[in-house]
Structure formats: structure tokens, C-alpha cells
Design a protein that fits this description.
By secondary structure, this protein is α+β, with helices and mostly antiparallel strands. The strands form 7 sheets. Strands 11-17-16-13-14 form a 5-stranded mixed β-sheet, with no helix packed on it. The chain has a 4-stranded antiparallel β-sheet with strand order 18-8-20-21, with no helix packed on it. Helix 9 runs antiparallel to helix 10. The longest helix has 40 residues. The protein is elongated, with a radius of gyration of 31 Å. The relative contact order is 0.10.
């Protein structure tokens, strides 16, 4: 960015600075995680691939011969130290770098970035609940694994599955869907990092002290590290799935998302079992642990099938039966016959009146985000009334039109993203008419509606479809959950949105008796009957009551 731009546009400079910080943290986090998980799987592979034969010395638990890159490597696991060796290499800073960078990302993107909670949820409470989940998960896991029942891996896996489902169900009341998944992933990452620093490394130091004293490593010490490392290899699979789930709104936006979490856990366990399945001692050699190969494969396939069925049924339930969140009440209107729709010469004029006091403005979600905070006031009035007349009300002909189809306008309807909000907030269009979405903000947005889900970078404009009739269709940003717009998608041109004075005009109505409906995002709906004659103007008055 040029220097003069930074000096003349401070909010954009701050936004770009935080964006660069976010990119740097993500880069560090992902690369450190690759090193950590990669070394975890390498050492688990070596642990279960060690071999002994008649020539193996008594002091050696097993040997492993490997090839990689330009050379061959000979690994030997000893019971006690024999001979002199060089520098001892520890594998610990990968986990620490991964956890610290992840914690900073959580603070920047969620705790400070405005993605932690949705409107109506308390930010401070969300932070407390999130932190309790992250660190409380480690305490519960550690107590479980150290208890006598922790020796049963299947039992631990079952408890983990139930805990995931319960945690996701509980967290949804306090956090946004994206934040729920991120905090569950952070909980797993904390468990894995704590396994390294609080269980594996202290044990390794005791093992080293025993070796330096010329003693044999006690069996209870030599078993702790491999057990926790193996469990880390299991946990890494659902952890990665949870982290990338934020790029799939179908998953994080599902009201039955707890089943998805359970499904992810099952998938992770199944895949981990496959990855930790049999290995080969060399080309042409039989597989080690071959008796368990089919058992692991069948278990993995079975769990994958269960996870798929659970996830598919949850998704189907969302699509087919789950009602959308209030106050939007979606109701698809029936298709009309193929003959041309009738138009007339009458203009229907009217206004929408608010009875009762208007609700107080709500806190604006963007006020918590650095790149948005300076763009708008800290509060956002969702009910805008001047002299008792309501703005932002969608008014349309709900019933009474003669059968027929109407031509779809070729000019797109414009929807802008500006100041970290959608403009206009309420609008209408004919089913099949293009919606032209533009992003005038310095930050990217991800715009989602039932018929599309697309990312928009700064300055980008694109036409998107809205084919299905619905009053109303919710359009929202997945990156900034407070951003919402509502589209009335109808099959005729007889609709309008009230202006600042609460008035509206619907042109070219034919003669007849019609039901006129009005919709407001907070106040709900109302209807009125009107008779249109050959007169050039007809009038109707609608009323919505404050709740």
C-alpha cells in the first residue's frame, strides 16, 4: 500500500494491518501444525513398525530400517543407554508454536474480531464459556485417561463422542456456529498440546535421567508417551476437519450441527484407525498385525457409514423440515399458469403505520471489529419510524391476481456491501431476476443465501441467482454474522418497499380484489383487502404493532 494511502486512510490501514497479522498467524499456525502432526505420525509409525529377530541384542526393543530422500536410516529403540551419542533432539516446539499461534488467531479473529457471538448473545459470556470449554476439556480428558477405565480405547472414544455432541449442543446457546466449531477444535488442540508438554515431555525427562544413570527405563514410563502420542494421532483427524468446517456454511449453519460434530468425530476415529493400520517390513514381506487388518478396515468403513448417514439425515432434516430462524417466515408461493399475466393502469398508494413505541436500537455487531468500528454508529435501529410511519416494510400482492406469468425484468437489482452492512436491507425482485452483489468495503465478505454461497473481495461485483419465490429470503455474510438483508422474491411485479415516510406505490395493477400483505423483519406481517377499479389511483393503509 502506498505511503500516502496509509496516511490518508487510517481505518483501511488498520484493517490491512490486522489482515496481514491474521495471514501471518494462519501461515505460522498451519505450517507448525504440519510439522507437529507429521512428526507425530512418523514416530507412531516407527513405534509400531519395530522388529526383533535372533540377532537383536537384549538391550534393544526393536529396530527399523527406512529409506527417504537420498539415503537410508537405521533406527534402534533401546531399553538402556549404551555407548556415547551426540546431541539429543527433542520434538516439542512444533506443538508449542501451533498452540500459541492458534490461541492468538482465536483472540484476533473471534474474541476481538466480532465472530464470537450472534446478535442477542453476550460477548463477555461467550469468551468465558469458550475458555472454560477449551481448558475444561483438557482436565476432563486427562482425568478420564488416567483413570482405570481410560485403558479401554473404545470406551474413551464413546465418551468422547457423547461429550462432543453435548458440548456442541450446549455451546450453540452462547456462541455463533463458526465459533462453536472453532472452540471444539481449540479444545482438541489444547488436549494434544497438553499431552506433549504435561505428560509426554515430563515422562521423557524421567526416562532420560534413568538412562544417564545406566538404568533400564521402567515399563510404566515407556508406556505413557506412546499412549498419549497415539491418542494425539487419533485426535488430529477430527481436529483438522473441525478447523476447515468454517469454510462449509452448510455444516456450520446447520441448526442440527451437533450431529455433524459427532459425525466428524466418528470419521476422525475411523480414518485414524486406517492410518494406524498394518505396515510392511519391506517389499514382498507380509504385513505386520495382519490379523487385525480386516477388523480395522471393517470398523473404519462402518464408522464412516454411520457418520455419513447421521450427517446426511441432519442435512436433509435442515433442508426439508427445519424452519428458518425467526423473524423471517419463508413461504414459497404456487406457480401460476403459463399464459401472460394481466397488467392494468392503476397505482396503489398507501403507507404502513406503527402503533406503539418503536423498540430501542440494538447494539451493532460491527462495533466489535476494528475494520468496521469507525464506519457506523454503535447502535442499529431495526425499526425505523418517522411520525409513526414505518420504513423498510416489504409490501406485495399476496392473492387475487388473475392466472398468468409475468416477464422477468432484465435489469438486475443492486445489493451493495458497504460499511459492513448490506444496502438496501429490504428489497424485492421478480423470481429469476438477477441480483447484482457488490463489495465496496475494504474487507472481504462471504455472501450466502439458499441459492448461492460466494465470496466477494474488495471492489468485486457479481450477478447471483434468486429463482425460487419466497417472502422473505434471508441473505447474510458468513464472515460478519450481523450483516443481513431480506429479499422478497415474488412471481409478479406488484410489490414495493416503504420509504423513509412509510409510503409505497405499486403500479399497473389490474382491476380486481386483492390481498395486500406487508412484512417487517421485527414486527412481523399484516394484511389488508383492497378493491381496484378503473380509477387511476387506489389507496390502502396498513398497520403493524410494536412488540
Amino acid at each position: 500500500m502506498p505511503l500516502e494511502s496509509i496516511q490518508s486512510d487510517t481505518p483501511r490501514a488498520v484493517s490491512d494491518l490486522f489482515e496481514l497479522l491474521s495471514v501471518a498467524l494462519r501461515w505460522t499456525h498451519v505450517f507448525a501444525a504440519i510439522l507437529w502432526v507429521g512428526s507425530t505420525y512418523l514416530f507412531n509409525f516407527m513405534e509400531k513398525s519395530l522388529e526383533r529377530d535372533e540377532a537383536t541384542p537384549p538391550n534393544v526393543r526393536g529396530r527399523l530400517w527406512m529409506v527417504h530422500g537420498g539415503g537410508f536410516y537405521f533406527v534402534e529403540k533401546q531399553k538402556r543407554l549404551e555407548g556415547k551419542y551426540g546431541v539429543l533432539h527433542w520434538f516439542k516446539y512444533e506443538s508449542a508454536t501451533t498452540w500459541v499461534s492458534g490461541a492468538l488467531l482465536l483472540a484476533v479473529v473471534y474474541y476481538r474480531g466480532g465472530l464470537l457471538v450472534e446478535p442477542g448473545q453476550n460477548h463477555s459470556t461467550g469468551v468465558v464459556v469458550g475458555l472454560l470449554t477449551i481448558f475444561g476439556g483438557w482436565v476432563i480428558y486427562d482425568l478420564l485417561v488416567r483413570s482405570p477405565i481410560g485403558r479401554n480405547e473404545l470406551f474413551v472414544a464413546a465418551v468422547g463422542w457423547v461429550s462432543f455432541v453435548a458440548a456442541s449442543w450446549f455451546l450453540r446457546a452462547w456462541l455463533s456456529p463458526r465459533a462453536v466449531f472453532i472452540h471444539l477444535g481449540a479444545m482438541i488442540g489444547t488436549i494434544m498440546a497438553a499431552n506433549v508438554w504435561m505428560r509426554i515431555l515430563p515422562t521423557q525427562r524421567k526416562m532420560l535421567a534413568a538412562l544417564l544413570d545406566g538404568k533400564e527405563i521402567p515399563s510404566n514410563l515407556s508406556a505413557t508417551g506412546p499412549l498419549r502420542s497415539k491418542q494425539n494421532s487419533y485426535l488430529a483427524i477430527p481436529l483438522v476437519l473441525l478447523m476447515i468446517s468454517n469454510h462449509a456454511p452448510m455444516i456450520v449453519g446447520s441448526p442440527r450441527m451437533h450431529w455433524w460434530v459427532g459425525g466428524l468425530f466418528l470419521v476422525g476415529f475411523a480414518v485414524a484407525r486406517v492410518f494406524r493400520g498394518p505396515t510392511h517390513a519391506g517389499e514382498g514381506a507380509p504385513a505386520k498385525n495382519s490379523d487385525g487388518t480386516m477388523v480395522h478396515a471393517v470398523l473404519a468403513l462402518g464408522l464412516l457409514l454411520v457418520a455419513f448417514v447421521i450427517g446426511f439425515r441432519a442435512a436433509a432434516a435442515v433442508v426439508v423440515t427445519a424452519p428458518p430462524p425467526p423473524p423471517v417466515k419463508r413461504a414459497a408461493m404456487p406457480r401460476v399458469a403459463s399464459k401472460k399475466g394481466v397488467v392494468g393502469a392503476t397505482t396503489l398508494r398507501g403507507s404502513v403505520t406503527l402503533t406503539g413505541p418503536a423498540p430501542a436500537p440494538e447494539a451493532w455487531g460491527g462495533a466489535k471489529l476494528d475494520e468496521c468500528r469507525s464506519l457506523r454508529a454503535a447502535t442499529l435501529p431495526l425499526v425505523r419510524a418517522t411520525g409513526g410511519k414505518l420504513a423498510d416494510v416489504f409490501v406485495y400482492v399476496k392473492a387475487g391476481l388473475p392466472e398468468g406469468t409475468y416477464e422477468t425484468p432484465k435489469v438486475p437489482v443492486q445489493l451493495d456491501q458497504e460499511g459492513c452492512e448490506f444496502t438496501p436491507r429490504v428489497f424485492g425482485l421478480v423470481a429469476g431476476q438477477s441480483l447484482r452483489v457488490g463489495n465496496h468495503d475494504a474487507v472481504p465478505h462471504n455472501v450466502r443465501a439458499p441459492e448461492f454461497n460466494q465470496a466477494f473481495t474488495r471492489g468485486e461485483t457479481r450477478d447471483v441467482p434468486l429463482e425460487n419465490p419466497s417472502v422473505m429470503t434471508t441473505i447474510q455474510c458468513d464472515l460478519h454474522p450481523w450483516m443481513r438483508s431480506y429479499a422478497g422474491v415474488v412471481e409478479h411485479p406488484f410489490f414495493a418497499v416503504t420509504g423513509e415516510d412509510g409510503g409505497f406505490a405499486i403500479e399497473k395493477l389490474p382491476e380486481g380484489e386483492f390481498t395486500i400483505a406487508a412484512w417487517h423483519e421485527v414486527l412481523g406481517t399484516t394484511e389488508a383487502k383492497v378493491t381496484v377499479t378503473s380509477a387511476p389511483v387506489a389507496t390502502v393503509e396498513l398497520t403493524l404493532a410494536a412488540k
